[in-house]
Write a structure and sequence with these properties.
Layout lengths: L2 E3 L5 E2 L4 E4 L2 H9 L7 E5 L4 E10 L4 E10 L7 E7 L5 H12 L3 E6 L10 H21 L7 E2 L3 E2 H7 L5 E5 L8 H6 L8 E6 L7 H9 L3 E3 L8 H16 L6
Parallel strand pairs: 1-4, 7-8, 7-12, 8-9, 8-10, 11-12, 11-13
Antiparallel strand pairs: 2-3, 3-6, 4-5, 5-6
Length: 253
């Protein structure tokens, strides 16, 4: 069943109706060719998901009647934020798409000393962020997520360190780390029961020594991902997968 996200304000519990607006209207009528009587999944992106039956379709709106309502049960018990060094070309698209499928909560694009991509101005940042957010939305629909991950505006490494203070644990993948691994870190009783984790991945070329030192000073825990060096578009996905398997919901219970 096809899944769509709407704002909570578009759901009328009193009349048992849901309104779909915007680009999804064209997708429903012209691409999927759905019609009156067909059912779709609707999620408010916060707490609830619904089965809605199409009542009517016009040029700008799709009206649904609520058939079923239930709480969102598709999100992991741990909230993970990816601090991703902005990579070249379209690698960020892949990173957003795949980590959204895996259950990421937020993605913070980070410009570092070795970041090649340059943002010309705030308008350029906003345009790219808007595009990335749309990729996250489409991936969330496809994977039947309960929320759409938030894609932040690109920020500097220093600003990212400040943002990361909200997390209970921050894990930095560092290719020169030889002793500490993810498994031993997650088994440490000190981090038992953590609910908010930040994972940090540098761009092509990795983090500079200065950035690693600054990160460690601010409490980031550096780990190795094993004997092989992973590409920046692979590292975050691999790290997220391992955490989700160990303390999330990947693989079931």
């Amino acid at each position: 069943m096809n899944r769509f996200f709407v704002e909570a304000s578009q759901i009328n519990e009193a009349t048992k109706e849901i309104l779909i607006e915007g680009e999804d209207v064209k997708h429903i009528s012209k691409v999927l060719r759905l019609s009156e009587g067909d059912n779709v999944e609707i999620c408010d992106g916060i707490s609830y998901e619904y089965i809605g039956r199409i009542k009517s379709i016009d040029k700008n709106n799709v009206f649904l009647s609520i058939v079923e309502k239930k709480g969102v049960e598709r999100e992991a018990p741990v909230k993970i934020t990816l601090y991703q060094g902005v990579p070249k070309a379209t690698k960020m698209d892949i990173i957003i798409q795949k980590t959204t499928e895996m259950g990421i909560a937020e993605i913070v694009p980070v410009t570092t000393q070795r970041t090649v991509v340059q943002f010309h101005n705030d308008k350029d940042r906003e345009k790219k962020t808007e595009r990335w957010q749309k990729i996250a939305q489409e991936a969330a629909k496809q994977s039947k997520r309960g929320i759409i991950p938030k894609i932040h505006m690109p920020i500097s490494f220093g600003e990212a360190l400040e943002h990361g203070l909200k997390n209970q644990l921050n894990i930095m993948a560092y290719e020169l780390e030889e002793e500490k691994g993810l498994k031993s870190l997650l088994l440490d009783e000190k981090y038992s029961g953590v609910k908010e984790i930040g994972i940090w991945v540098g761009p092509e070329g990795g983090y500079s020594e200065t950035e690693v030192a600054d990160g460690l000073k601010e409490g980031l825990k550096s780990i190795t991902l094993g004997p092989r060096i992973l590409r920046t578009e692979t590292a975050g996905f691999a790290l997220l997968s391992m955490i989700m398997y160990e303390i999330g919901d990947l693989g079931g219970f």
